[in-house]
Amino acid sequence: MEVVRTVSDLRTARAHLGGRVGFVPTMGALHEGHLALVKAAKGASDAVVVSIFVNPLQFGPHEDLTSYPRSEDADLAAAEGEGADLVFIPESEEMYPAGSSSRVTVGPLGGRLEGAARPGHFDGVATVVARLFNLVQPDIAYFGQKDAQQVAVVKQIVRDLGWPLAVDVRPTVRADDGLALSSRNVYLSTTERRQATSLWRALQAGATAILAGAGPGDAERSMLEVLGAAGGVDVEYARAVDPGTFGGWDGSGEVLLVVAAKVGRTRLIDNLPVYRDRQ
Ligand code: AMP
Description:
Blueprint lengths: L1 E3 L2 H9 L5 E6 L5 H13 L2 E6 L19 H10 L4 E3 L3 H4 L18 H4 L3 H16 L3 E5 L3 H14 L4 E5 L19 H6 L2 H14 L4 H15 L2 E9 L12 E10 L2 E10 L4
Parallel strand pairs: 1-4, 2-3, 2-5, 3-4, 5-6
Antiparallel strand pairs: 7-8, 8-9
């Protein structure tokens, strides 16, 4: 496995990769959710590129950019263990050299839910993804369902800007108690860790309601009830939305249940797709 830190070394290493290239962009602090993406890439590509970059553009001024968990040595060992061929770990100045100011803006999708809660977040995501896609030139890029709105944003920019690549979305990897794996879970105390399982329980309650014929309002109330009962969970939103637009769900076909909440000082998100007409 080759590790590169500069754009110029990445270009050189990329030029030596033959066949189909799978790409897994991450912010590091790798866990089984990330590694499932690397595994999937390994199974479907001739070469796998992983990037590790804590992208400052997607953090708001009062968010956890400086304290975001970093574990480079363990990440490199884990990526190598899954068979990654090339890891790109740039410094911020390498990705955004002095004077760089262009941004990719995604439109209405980028302003809803997560975008409303974290202004500028999805423009930051879209900008770094565009920069990485241009550098890595993957045939397939792998993303996790865990960040469902990010997936929708990436698909939108791939369509709008015309990259010749496939976006492969992999299911959310969870702990035994249902909590979605996240690099931010390390911030949780033992009590908070227990309270945090309410996000998954809320999504399941919402899904049960939808499958029993409930509309979005009732599904949202079921989710809020579970989150409220957990104690210590400060809900930002619990919604039943259209999975493509993140706007309102019209009551038929696929619906995406999405939740965001603060448990202590840690902000967590989770989601669950539900297919009413197929079940
Ligand atoms: P991050 O490092 O948090 O930016 O995540 C990098 C990629 O891993 C994104 O595509 C995430 O959606 C994905 N990911 C993060 N957590 C999980 C999880 N629990 N299951 C599956 N994919 C995940």
